[in-house]
Amino acid sequence: MAKKFYVVWAGRETGIFTSWDVTKRSVDKYPQAKYKSFATEAEAKAAFAQSPASSIGKSTSAKTTSRSSTVKPAGASTSTKSLGANQAVLSQFDVVIYTDGGCEPNPGKAGSGMAIYRKGELSELWFGLFNPNGTNNTAELNALHQALLVAKKVLDAGETVQIMSDSQYSIKCVCEWAYGWKAKNWTRKSGEIANLEIIKPAHALYEAMKADLVLQHVAAHIGIEGNELADRMSIHAIDQQHKGFSQFSAPLDISKILALRTG
């Protein structure tokens, strides 16, 4: 694996580091931590001399650089709440993945959906994981897990990626709460942890990629196309009772897909 240089603008220690373990100790659970990885020392030095806003969320000459701004980029403090902010995300990342889950009623018939954008354009839609006795939380977690699997392939190909989920529960489970549960052997005093069969593998993926992955909350049903399409796919999964997770094979006519039943 190529050597990386980690710039920490805000953390317990600031500077340029070559060890992810050292960087993690500096930024993990540090309020408003800001950091990013670079492929070369020259890029790292140039970035450290400027404000973090000059680098975070911006492309560099190396496709393998990270766009994370915090160890918990997850919507605990960050959310895309406008069409303009969403458009900025689409222009900053090679791949943007939107996820959603639906359940009718809750608990009841559940399904998951995903919309993938490449270079700002809709590329693929996915649907499935139908569960006749599911919950909305389970459906949202399933969708996020599938997005993490796609994100790994994207990062392995040297591209940048952001995941957009409208489920604060799913994001917090995978990116925040899982650390405490794992430290206690996946237990908690208040009782059983729901959906561990999804949370464990999703958290393992996130933990392995978080230095190079941005996972962010997106406001639901405010007209953000990717979120709306993922929603339609989750309901399509319920209507089709599709238990696998498959690519939507019909033409990607966005207006027709948005006219499908919503969750």
Automatic annotation (TrEMBL):
Catalytic reaction equation(s): Endonucleolytic cleavage to 5'-phosphomonoester
Q: Fetch the Gene3D superfamilies from UniProt.
A: Ribonuclease H-like superfamily/Ribonuclease H, Ribonuclease H1, N-terminal domain
Cofactors, names only = Mg(2+)
- Taxonomically, which superkingdom? Bacteria
| One Gene Ontology term from the biological process aspect of the record | DNA replication, removal of RNA primer
Q: What is its EC number?
A: 3.1.26.4
The segments labelled Disordered in the record are: 55-80
The Low complexity compositionally biased stretches are 55-72
Keywords attached to this entry: Endonuclease, Hydrolase, Magnesium, Metal-binding, Nuclease
Matches recorded under InterPro entries: Ribosomal_bL9/RNase_H1_N, RNase_H, RNase_H1_euk, RNase_H1_N, RNase_H1_N_sf, RNaseH-like_sf, RNaseH_domain, RNaseH_sf
User: Where would one find coiled-coil regions in this protein?
Assistant: none
Q: Does the keyword Hydrolase apply?
A: yes
Q: Does the keyword Magnesium apply?
A: yes
Q: Which GO terms describe its molecular function?
A: magnesium ion binding; nucleic acid binding; RNA-DNA hybrid ribonuclease activity
Family, as annotated: Belongs to the RNase H family.
Q: What is this protein called?
A: Ribonuclease H
